[in-house]
Amino acid sequence: MKKTGIVFLLLILAFLLVWPFIGPEYQVYLTLSFFAYSVALLGFNLLFNYTGLLSFGHALFIGVGGYTAAFLTSRFHIPYMEVSILVTILLSGVVAILIGLICVRYIKIYFAMLTLAFGMLFHSFLMKTYHLTGGDEGMSVEQPYLLGMDFSSMDQMAFFSGPYYYYSLGVLILASIAMWRIVHSPFGLCLTSIRDNPDKAEYLGIGIRKYRLLAFIISGCFTGVGGVLLAPITGHMDPGMVFWTHSGDMVFMTLVGGFSNFFGPMLGTVIFITLRDVISSYIEYWRLIFGALLAAIVILSPGGVIEVLTNLFTLIRRKIMAGENAS
Amino acid sequence: MEKNRREFLKTAGVGVLGAGAAALLGSQKAFAAPAKGVPKGPVKIGIMGFQAGVAAVPGIAGIRAAQIWADQINKAGGILGRKVKLKIEEESKAKDTVEKFKKLTIKEKCDVVSGILSTGNGQAVGKEAEKIKQLWLSWDGTTQKGLIETQPKAFYGFRSVDNELEAVAGAITTAKVFPNIKKVAGIGNDYSYGRNCWAAYKRVLSMYNPGVRFEEGIFTKLGETDFSAAIDALAAKKPDLIMSSFWSGDTSIILKQAAGKRLFQKVKGCFTTGGGVHDTLKKEFTPEGLILGYNSLYFRWTDNWPLLNEFTKIYHQKHNAYPVYECCHAYFTLQAYKAAVEKCYGLTGQWPTKEQVVEALRGINVPSLSGYRGYRQDNKQECCFFMGLTTHKNSYDFVTIDPVYILPSAMIQKPEGYTFDQWATAWEKKVKG
Amino acid sequence: MILEAINISKYYGEFCALKDVSIGIDEGEFVSVIGPNGAGKTTLINVLTGFLKPDAGQVNFRGKDIAGKGPEELSTMGIARSFQLVHIFPELSLINTIKVAIISRQAKGMRLFASLARDKEVHEQALEVAELFGLADLLEETAKNCPQGIKKLLDVASAFALHPEIILLDEPTSGVSTSDKNKIMQVLVDASKKIGIKTVLQVEHDMDIVFSYSDRIIAMQQGKVLADGSPAEVEKNEEVICTVVGQKECFQTFNRIMSMNREERA
Amino acid sequence: MVETIVNILFSGIFHASVLFLVAAGLQLVFGVQKIFNLACGSFYALGAYLGIVFVKYFLSVGGPPVLAILPLLAAGFVLAIIGPIIERGLLRFVYDRDVHFQLLLTFALLLMIEDIIKLIWGTYPLSTQGVYLAFGILDIFGASIPVYNLIVIVASIVIAGIMAHILSNTRFGRIIRATSDNNEMAQALGININNIYVKVFTLGTVLGTIGGALVIPSTAAMSEMAVDLIVLAFAVVVIGGLGSMKGAFVGALLVGILKSVSFAVYPELEMLLIYIIVIVVLVFKPQGLFGTAT
What we know:
Number of strands of chain B: 18
Mean pLDDT of chain A: 91
Order of helices and strands of chain A: HHHHHHEHHHHHEHHHH
Number of strands of chain A: 2
CATH superfamily of the largest domain in chain B: Response regulator
Largest sheet of chain A: 2 strands, antiparallel
Number of helices of chain A: 15
Largest sheet of chain B: 8 strands, mixed
Structural class of chain A: mainly alpha
Largest interface: B-D, 43 and 45 residues
Distance between the termini of chain A: 31 Å
Number of domains of chain B: 2
Radius of gyration of chain B: 21 Å
Helix content of chain B: 40-55%
Shape of chain B: globular
Low-confidence stretches of chain A: none
CATH architecture of the largest domain in chain B: 3-Layer(aba) Sandwich
Mean pLDDT of chain B: 88
CATH class of the largest domain in chain B: Alpha Beta
Strand content of chain B: 15-25%
Number of helices of chain B: 15
CATH topology of the largest domain in chain B: Rossmann fold
Oligomer: heterotetramer
């Protein structure tokens, strides 16, 4: 990473650390969703950007994570967040292997549609097994213990803007570091080569299905963890979280932020969550605006907002440097 | 019909109510300075209902009712001189709904949130309300899981009537109107409401009609627009009666498609909640003699209820449609809130805290669009349900019901502290005993 | 014999692309396959490298049947190839393209958390290959932005980076200006010597290149082997030359030009 | 028994005939433009809503209900104008992009059209009065079948026939097939590819809008209908094979009849069954029953 990039990241991190103290309570609360979706999108984008596979059913893994948290906390009374996360990683892995074995044989539209079908299959499953999952009513998620500590005596909002905030931020940082290492590892390079030209990659001895499957599994695990983080924020999981339009939301976030940049999807979650919060309060027709925005991004700037920003940034810097040279 | 209405009016105490309604619709009053002990600035009321999808039909109707209510109240001087300001947010999946509920509470600092239609969201918001200590007056969202109450000790959350009420009312009406049926088939939406209603209906009907046999229920996904196959499956069971708990546009669709297959020429029907979108039930395809239930609001249950007459007129003028049941839920919750605040003020001379409002709401009884409504001591709503047999004898292009049976929820809702099963068992003993 | 095709046939529907073809490549040979368009050269390479499964016959690599084995497995066995239409990774830099091959050769692909940037071994070897192919100045250039000649070299370079025992090149100089062709060939030959790839099989149209670099030439027509022999033998085969170049009168012209070229080089 | 079978069969075929129209639009566009149009369900919904408007007007000026099929078809055709608007205004910018972007652009369309419908028509269920039952009911083998259902089935078959004729016997059809096989080659042969794309997309759109318009007398228009339908249409084309008209036809029949049968046999299975079949097909015959591409 370039120096300016690191400085920029540290600034954002510093800001996020003090944000609960300076930000309005509700905005701080929304930041939790940003953390959770960011972790989920790290996984999503490993597939989309780095492996070239568009999953239109990734909300399934949000569901795996969320329902795991729901089952553990409210059914089995195991409130430990870490247990939820570990079990989710395990379950997401298993689910991803089962689905992945079938899905990674296909690419492009077929992959997108197959993942969509699996997502909807899971949705139907949740609806039909109502005696287990509450069907459409969903399941309650109890406030978790963090690092073994019980915060139930704490005021709920204090919990969200305190321990849970920093816990989520911590998970996001850890997940980002892990994902950063993955995409900059030999494995990551091989994935990119498969995305760019699977035939060529295969002739260079890269077993493309094996790599795609592993990418799918890792992706599922990250998204699953995002789902775990998401669950306590609302204290409830319902099948709406698994519906294909929620997968669409995830694709939307990634694209708006900028899929080709490691941090693009994170920016996307900020934009999505903020925009939706603001627009939907004023206009009943926010889907129209979101659709138009998505169309504009796809047509005009497929690199997303982050690309626009970086281009702007370099342009300004060049202007300034030109100005300095001239004077 | 006359007898029923008289019966009901007696229980509701119509004399008091006429006066109350008149006062409410009283002459225009400019905003005077708020009364002594009342804070300045408007009362902020959060409103939450679905604005997209199948549930947007009642959702938007409820929101419109809230707006009409707010206009009326503001014209009449607000609540204790404070203007009412509505903050409307969309209800959608649980996560976003809870977020919006929080927004209304923390950011918008609403004094109360009125709304929520879905039971899943009700569970989530109900829990949330207790945690962030926000007053929540539900329209249609219960906090039940299946037939079991999940939050029996709710304090800040005031829940709607139980989910299965229409089905219980439907079963009682079925037993009364069609006492000799032998075989019943059921169809509902493929989600908790549809399944709970079917279970409750079976339980109650078999108390009164022990010989009745029930076929396996058929459940179609919410928003289905083609029921041909379901109708065939129902017809193949050769039942005497078909029960359905559809509450949205699907009622009109299944009736239309059933008419195309002459289904209700051979079979009787009980649409427990179908009156929800009653003006879509055109005479052309809706036969006479079906049991049709109206959840809490029937737009012509009486000719002598100024609150409803006025409301229906405004609603029809504004939106070119008839009010949907959700209107009465929404209207009532707001009426109840206003009454509770005023009651507290009468006692203390101060604008009440949320906790005081809670105490005042318990046991409250106020006039709403479909008669008097109230809250029980366990924060559950009580209101009336309307069942009847469809008739074409009216001036509309859609069916109405005649006679109108008015079933107060005290009769069809499980009492405080009882599970559905306990209640049904006790009831069964009474019936058989 | 390192690579051997025995009686292979390949059909595309009705069309027979290869009919009962048998060839063998010995270790250390530089073999060129020539023939007019549609003779089945590329199909032959595709069958030999597992890209296509033959409808009949057998392909042996070091005596082992490799028919039906996928490209991935073949590459780990020591067979590499390049493509007629360049196959590159458009978004990858040149150095990373070569690194993919080296990671694959060193079986480091499943290292999930290792830092690629800090892997000196991979980097140095990639650098070495890049230098051999004269790409050292363009290491960070994105492949899709490079001129055609560089792309072609890159395609071949990444195949070489696998250190295969045999490499099959499908028209390594196609689409490149005549002046560059010899340069590329020279780079290829030098690189294979340095890396230690002894056996090369190439499909080539440029007769000058074919005749100056090959140890042996296989001429094909309509899915069959027309001739198989040393350049000197094939050069004299009028039928072959006429088929490949396409005209009756060409034989004389061909020989004249070839001798001119030889003199020029000398 | 016979009654039940006749009922199940006709319900399934009726459902299939509407599904076929939408799926055919999806297939045509995918075949030629290689775009998987997630908004095809939205076109269907638009057709339904505009169909209601047209029929209402038609009846209000005294048009006989039995001729209501005309304003319905008209609604479908009028909506053809959105074809060129969307194709020229949006899609043409992404032809050279990754397929994912094309998919996402149609997803954007889906979001927009859903709200546009809400903006114009609201969320209250709307329906046409006096049309569905005006044609009477046919009784055969003890089963009752609304004649309107038969009309829709026949209309769908006629449209399928016309499509088949266009594709195999006309110059336009040959061009379409050539383009779907190899658009670079078609371009090289002097075919104006832009022109073809506009026409094909418009045709695909009209198939969807007509599907919506034809079905609406039998049901009511609701805001969810687009999202619900796309999942089914998707199942149809996957089962039948992407890009294949024959596939759309057979796939629609299969899905329609399976839905019908599952209701009769074990209703809890309904949608689950369809997803499972989709997955099974994709696993064992990824190109679908009649598809060619993988």
